[in-house]
Every structure is written in structure tokens, then in C-alpha cells.
Specification:
Blueprint (H helix, E strand, L loop, with lengths): L15 H20 L16 H6 L1 H4 L3 E13 L3 E7 L4 E7 H4 L1 H7 L7 E10 L5 E12 L15 H6 L1 H7 L1 H23 L3 E2 L5 E2 L11 E4 L4 E5 L4 H10 L3 E9 L11 E10 L3 H20 L3 E4 L2 E4 L4 E4 H9 L9 H10 L10 H13 L7 E7 L8 E2 L2 E12 L2 E8 L4 H18 L9 H8 L5 E7 H9 L18
Parallel strand pairs: 3-5, 6-10, 14-15
Antiparallel strand pairs: 1-2, 1-4, 2-3, 4-5, 7-9, 8-9, 10-11, 11-19, 12-13, 15-17, 16-17, 17-18, 18-19
Helix pairs in contact: 7-8, 8-10, 8-16, 11-13, 12-13, 14-15
Length: 502
């Protein structure tokens, strides 16, 4: 039986007909194994005692020792009665030397029928070839799972990003560097948890399904609970439940939470994403600033080996953070000074002069926020904290005691992208109730069909007393993008949201 894979020119991509023929041949091979009582899919266990990295990193102590390894055949070089294959396991690849005199004629003949992509188990001795390559001299081997589809042709690999995202399992097999990104993602999460745990924060879980749509601007996904016969909403944040826990007596809590927003998709947005929110009693937004700087500096050093990293060709110093009020930032980058606007009309006139579109009834605070979007954010390449936001766009933040037009809120930006948001949390239930009601009223005016409601239970919780609290929320996915130099959020999500092909 001839496998058409071996007949492909090295630079030729596989046609649909060739793929179909390969599938037919591989299924026939499987049928022959089953008929001979050697169905690989009935194999249930193969004990492994070494990985490829163990052998490579500890060759001096492991040379001549026996090992048991398992993985996928990635290439084969046929030399008649002796073969070399590349075996890929969870940690890397290693060369294996297979000789008919060592494994036996019957096993060798069966092995010759195996295909690239098949999963095998081997035992053998660690040695170095005459050419100096660390290898495994195989004495026993068995087929553990049959690959019925061929891997992408080695010279072209798997390049199409759409296919890579849809078939991440295949992407991980043929593009080993992709696995490194997700290993780092896991490491980033471990380091964040360790950092927060060391500061006395408690990791908690809060509901993903909520009983009603809150008044926030993000659009939720809606589902239906059959037993309760009621619509429910996938959460768009974890904030309100976490602050209930501060009311209840926990003084430091955080959650690594999956968040769902029924909104647009681009290189920085996916409908479901991971955020971390943390809340600490008896501190304020400046306490959260210190956490942001310390944590991000630590992550750069731990993950990238230096506070100076490169993202998409731009060097970024994660050890140096600029801090500007929003008023200072707008003045710096637009030339307009909020303090020169005596009235809302003055602010709207400045917006018109600078060709910044604002609502007809825009307040000074609204105009300031629009100026920030128009002139400032694109310039914030190096790590920058922007603080003291207008109250108009900060419904959950505490007002500044000496200037109630502004709130104790900050966001931090890197490479012209917002990475996180923090407040001195609003703990006045009367003020909070009023802001919620105005927010819901505005949403209903914009969309009469909205189901948004005020979370009065949260207001009740505040009436029992919320200690002065600092809160911070940031997206994990954008942080992973930054620390792994990934251009798209889909590169750091194992299974990003994709439109079905049909």
C-alpha cells in the first residue's frame, strides 16, 4: 500500500483529491490493525517517565539510561533496516533511532506502516549520535492512537490565521511557538495570583448568570432559565458582587472572571474575555495605582526577563510610569485647558473649534472626556496613569472631596491602549442610587426596548455600610498580548469566538 503523502513534491500543497486519498489509505490501515486485534484506540495507558526537555537539559546524567516516552511522529527518515523519527511530546521534540534488530522484524514491519501524526509510545536508551544529536535508541515501541488526517505539509505549515484559530489543536501541533504563548499566559495568571495572595487578597467566585440587565453601557448576552421561567444575563463585570463581599466583612478580595459582552469584535475585543477585579477596604485609588505599578513591573521581569519589553517593534519601559490628571493630559496633547472653560457653553465652543463632536447638551466633563479620546489616548505609548475623571462618565467612583465635578478614578494605558480601570469606590448609597437611576433613565431614553434595571439590592448593601474601598479591574487578555508580543487578542485565546463556516 502506497501512501500518497510520500509522493508529494516538497513544495506542493495537497489537493482535495490527495487529501481524500490519504484519508482512505489511513482508514484502511486502521481497519487492518483492528482486524489483526491491535486496535490502537483500545490502548488505555502508557506510563511515561521522561519528557524531551528532561533528556536535553540533563543529558550528562541521563546518557545511557532507559526512558519511556510518548508523543506524535513528526517526521521520518527511512534508511532501510534503520529509521530516524522526530517524536514530539508536550514539551518539545527529540530524535529517535529505530532499528529492525532492536525492535524485532514483526514490530518493525508494523512500524513502517505508521504515519506522520500517529501517537506512539517508546522505551529506549539516551545516547548521542555520531553527528552529536541527542537521541533515543529505541528498543520497544507501540502505536497508541492513529492519526486519520495528515498534518499540514511541512514546508508550508499552517499559516492561514482563520484555520489556526478554528483548529487550535492543529495550530498547537505544527506551530510549537504558539504553545509558548499559552504557557506564558498560564504563568502570568499564576504570578498575578501569587502577587495578590501575598498581599492578603482572597480569591473568590461570583455568579456568571445574573437576574437582570444592569444599567451599564455594555450590552449583555441573554439566556433563559427554564425552571424559573425567567430571562437571565451573562455578567458584564464582577464588580457589584465583589463589593457586596467587602460590605460583608472581607477586606481584600479578587476574582479571575470570565466576562461576556455582546458587542463588536476586533484585534482587541472578543465577546468573552478574562478580567481580574480586586477590591481592598480602607484604601483609595492611589493605593490601587501602587498595585498597578508594582504588579506590572513584576510581571515584565518575571515573564520577559526585563522591565524593558518590545511590543510589535516598539520598546516599552514597564518600570517607568507617568501619572497625569485627565485635565493635564488634555492640555498637554490638545492645547486646551479645562480650567479656561467657565461654562458648559465655553466647553462646547472649544469642541467646535477643535472639530470634536459632542452632544448638543454636553457638559464640561463630557467635553473633557471627548477631548481625551480625540487627542490623548493615541499618544500614550509608554505606561501612563490618567486619573481624576469627570463624574459624568464615572458612575461608580467616589467624587473628589475638594472638587465634586471629578471622581477619584484612573485608567492606565500602554501602547495607546487602555489596560485597566480603578476607583475610590463610591460608598454613599444615596449618591449611588441617584447615579444608577439616572444611568438607567438615559439608557431607556436611548433604547426604549432595553430591559436595564437599577440594582437596588446593591444599594441596600451600601446602606449597611461599605468601608472606604479601592477597586481595580483589568483585562488579562490584553496583558498577555503585551507580554507575549501578540498582535491580536485571538492569538492569546485558545478558542476565540468565530463565525461558523456554514
Amino acid at each position: 500500500m502506497t501512501d500518497v503523502e510520500t509522493n508529494l513534491p516538497e513544495t506542493e500543497e495537497m489537493t482535495a483529491e490527495q487529501l481524500s486519498e490519504i484519508q482512505r489509505i489511513r482508514r484502511e490501515k486502521l481497519d487492518a490493525l483492528v482486524a489483526a486485534g491491535d486496535d490502537p484506540f483500545r490502548k488505555v495507558r502508557f506510563d511515561v517517565d521522561a519528557y524531551t526537555t528532561d533528556v536535553r537539559d540533563n543529558f550528562e546524567t541521563m546518557e545511557g539510561k532507559s526512558v519511556r516516552m510518548a508523543g506524535r511522529i513528526m517526521s521520518r527518515r527511512d534508511m532501510g533496516k534503520a529509521n530516524f523519527i522526530d517524536l514530539m511530546d508536550a514539551k518539545g521534540r527529540i530524535q529517535c533511532y529505530i532499528r529492525i534488530n532492536d525492535v524485532g522484524e514483526d514490530v518493525f514491519e508494523q512500524y513502517k506502516k505508521w504515519d506522520i501524526g500517529d501517537i506512539i509510545g517508546i522505551s529506549g536508551e539516551v545516547f548521542r549520535t555520531h553527528r552529536g544529536e541527542i537521541s533515543i535508541h529505541v528498543f520497544t515501541l507501540e502505536l497508541l492512537a492513529k492519526s486519520l488526517l495528515p498534518l499540514p505539509e511541512k514546508f508550508h505549515g499552517l499559516k492561514d490565521t482563520d484555520t489556526r484559530y478554528r483548529q487550535r489543536y492543529l495550530d498547537l501541533i505544527v506551530n510549537p511557538e504558539v504553545k509558548d504563548t499559552f504557557v506564558k499566559r498560564s504563568q502570568i495568571l499564576r504570578e498575578i495570583r501569587a502577587f495578590l495572595d501575598a498581599k492578603g487578597f482572597l480569591e473568590v467566585d461570583t455568579p456568571v448568570l445574573t437576574p437582570f440587565e444592569i444599567g451599564a453601557s455594555a450590552r449583555p448576552f441573554v439566556t433563559h432559565h427554564n425552571t424559573l421561567d425567567m430571562d437571565m444575563y451573562l455578567r458584564i463585570e464582577t464588580e457589584l458582587y465583589l463589593k457586596r463581599l467587602i460590605v460583608g466583612g472581607f477586606d481584600r478580595v479578587y476574582e479571575v472572571g470570565r466576562i461576556f459582552r455582546n458587542e463588536g469584535m476586533d484585534t482587541k475585543h472578543n465577546p468573552e474575555f478574562t478580567s481580574i477585579e480586586l477590591y481592598q477596604a480602607y484604601t483609595d485609588y492611589k493605593g490601587m495605582m501602587d498595585i498597578v505599578v508594582e504588579m506590572n513591573t513584576m510581571l515584565a521581569e518575571k515573564i520577559c526577563g526585563s522591565t524593558k519589553i518590545t511590543y510589535q517593534g516598539t520598546e516599552i519601559d514597564m518600570g517607568h510610569w507617568e501619572r497625569l490628571t485627565m485635565v493635564e493630559a488634555v492640555k498637554k496633547y490638545s492645547g486646551c485647558d479645562y480650567n479656561d472653560w467657565a461654562t458648559d457653553e465655553d466647553a462646547r465652543a472649544a469642541a467646535k473649534e477643535k472639530h470634536v463632536e459632542v452632544p448638543a447638551n454636553a457638559t464640561k466633563g463630557t467635553v473633557l472626556a471627548e477631548f481625551f479620546d480625540a487627542f490623548v489616548e493615541e499618544n500614550l505609548i509608554q505606561p501612563t496613569i490618567i486619573y481624576d475623571y469627570p463624574v459624568e462618565n464615572s458612575p461608580l467612583a467616589k467624587r473628589k472631596p475638594n472638587d465634586p465635578a471629578f471622581t477619584e478614578r484612573f485608567e492606565y494605558f500602554i501602547n495607546a491602549t487602555e489596560f485597566g480601570n480603578a476607583f475610590s469606590e463610591l460608598n454613599d448609597p444615596i449618591d449611588q442610587k441617584g447615579r444608577f437611576e439616572r444611568q438607567v433613565a438615559a439608557k431607556r431614553a436611548e433604547d426604549p426596548n432595553t430591559t436595564a434595571q437599577v440594582d437596588y439590592d446593591y444599594v441596600t448593601a451600601l446602606e449597611y455600610g461599605l468601608a472606604p474601598t479601592g477597586g481595580l479591574g483589568f483585562g488579562v487578555d490584553r496583558l498577555v498580548m503585551l507580554l507575549t508580543d501578540s498582535a491580536s487578542i485571538r492569538d492569546v485565546l485558545l478558542f476565540p469566538t468565530m463565525k461558523p463556516l456554514d
